[in-house]
Every structure is written in C-alpha cells, then in structure tokens.
Amino acid sequence: MSISDKLAETYRGRTVLITGHTGFKGGWLALWLESLGAHVIGYSLDPPTDPSFFQETELSRRITDIRGDILDQTKLDRVINEYRPDFVFHLAAQPLVRASYQSPRETFNVNVMGTVNVLESIRVSQHPTVCVCITSDKCYENKEWDYAYRENDPIGGHDPYSASKGAAEIVIASYRKSFFEPDGSQPLCALSSARAGNIIGGGDWADDRIVPDCVRSLVNGETMLLRNPTAVRPWQFVLDPLFGYLLLAQRMKEYPGEYSGAWNFGPYYSNNVDVQTLTGKIFREWGIGRWENMPQQNNLHEACFLKLDIAKSMTRLGWKPVYSIDDAIHKTIEWYMADFSRAEEMYNFSLDQIAMYMHDADNVE
Length: 365
Fold this sequence. Notes:
CATH superfamily: NAD(P)-binding Rossmann-like Domain
Protein name: CDP-glucose 4,6-dehydratase
Distance between the termini: 17 Å
CATH topology: Rossmann fold
Shape: globular
Domain NAD(P)-binding: 17-331
CATH class: Alpha Beta
CATH architecture: 3-Layer(aba) Sandwich
Order of helices and strands: HEHEHEHEHHEEHEEHEEHHEEHEEHHH
Organism: Methanosphaerula palustris (strain ATCC BAA-1556 / DSM 19958 / E1-9c)
C-alpha cells in the first residue's frame, strides 16, 4: 500500500482541527489533509501576510474556516465541543525570533498560554483525541556546538521566541503526565510535541525569513542583505516535517501509550548549510540575484549553529527526509515562479507538489 493510501485510510472522514491554519505550515497541512478526505476545521486569526499560501490556494472555500484568537479560551472550548475533533494539530504561534524581541509579552502569551488553552479545551471536553503540538528546534538549550540535539536534551532558549517554545514544551509534558496518562492506562488524549528545523517551501511570505526575503529582492531587482550569513540551520522542505506530523498522529491513534512524547523532524546533516550558501543556491535556481552583508544595527542574539538528531523518528516511526537541500530549493522556487507567472492555479499546483512528494517518499532509499 502506498503512503498516500495509508494516510488516506487514517484521515479520510475524520475531523481534524488545525490551529494556525492560515499560516505557512498550517496552510500546507490543511491542504494535504483536505486532499486525503479529512473534514478540516481551521482555527486562526486572519492570514499573517498578504499574499499568503492560504489565500493563493483559496483554502477558505474548501475547509471549515473559523477565525479566532488562540487566547480566547471560551471560543476554543466552543469549537472543540462542537466539532469533537479526532485529531488536533496545534500550530498557532508567534513564529519569528526578531519579532519576539519587539513583542516579548505577546510572544509568551501566544506560544505558551495559547498551548495551555488548546490543551485545557481538550481536557475539559473529555473527548478522546490525538494532539500534536508543533514547537521548534529552537526549544533546546543551544550551546552552539557541533552536536545534534536529541529529544531528551535540556530545554532552554536565549531569545523570547526560543524561550517561549521551551516553555511550551514544559507545558505539553506537564499536561501529558498530569491529565492524559496519569495512571499509565489508555489516555483520553494522546499528546506529543514535534520539533522541526528551518522550513522552506512555496507560499511563505513572512518577514525576516530567508526564502521570502530572497524572493522579494529578486522580484524587486534589489540586492539581498544577509543579517547573519554564516549561521548554520537545518533547512528542510515544508512537506518533510508535515509528513512526520501526519505519520506520528497516525501511530498515536493506533498506539497512544507508545508514541506520545517529544519527536524531532529535521533534515539529514547534508542539509545543514549556512545562510550564504542557501542564498547562493536560491539565486542559481532563479537565474539571477546578488547579496551582501547587512550593516549591523543592533546586538540582538540569534543562534549561529543548530542541528537536530532524527534517529528516534527514523527508527521508531519509519519516517525519513525525502528531499535534499537542492531538491527543496528547486521545489520552493518552482512554486514561487508558478505563482508569479499566473500560469498555474496554485491550489492544483500545490496538490501536484504533494502528490509528487508522496510518490518520491514511496521510492526514497
């Protein structure tokens, strides 16, 4: 049976709640689940950017699109009680490091208390469900060494964003131990956290992210200014971690006690390249482009080196990355070029990328 068939068997006809469905990763996840035959309920604020993947693929016409604040406990309770989801994927977040320095209170509120609110709504609903909370590779106490962080390594965080994701991990572990498996029996809610690397793919328009910043500079004929060109990141194509989330939730549904916990979904180490290398690859794929160092305007701390150990996900879930860094860049730029040319309908184009990804996943060595 193909991967697509196995996933469809799990999600077809099921009700799936996605918080943050109007965001970049949330939009791709909503589209994938909708294509598998799931009844997708999205709960989110308006799209965080204009344009956005959500708008470009017209997802509001294809799923149940609910606008709400993750900090609105009453509305969250009402949505979960009304739709009684079989699966919950919690992605709603303030996702940017530099924005967290500008709005630390908002970052902690959304990323920590937003997670508390989702888990509390599930707890009080008493409806059995599977919940995957998406945090970040930056939740780890990063010591800037050449070491890939494992799921049992210490949680930490220097900047407000990273600290908020570390705090969210502590919240998730507390709810799992205190409420969802207090006596080791079948839990009411199978609960996991998923930590992914730096995601690239078509439809991301956020500020202070390398791919959309590159695309904007290319379209406007401007020189790309790199803030931290030697910083190394675990780059991965958007569908790689999303496949991991879907596979994890599938296993949690079947064996909740065995698969609830923390999981890393990162690339192979060959995808860990610095920002200037990634930028050069993007410009070669596009056919033009130039960059230079950004003048230093402040001393805001950002991690320079980070790797994820993915052995647990590979051995226990049977998950593995499908696309190399060059494949990921090709697929990403292919999406943006199709969008700018207006020669493609982006809903179908994005579905084609998902179909090709699943075909490639079936044949990956």
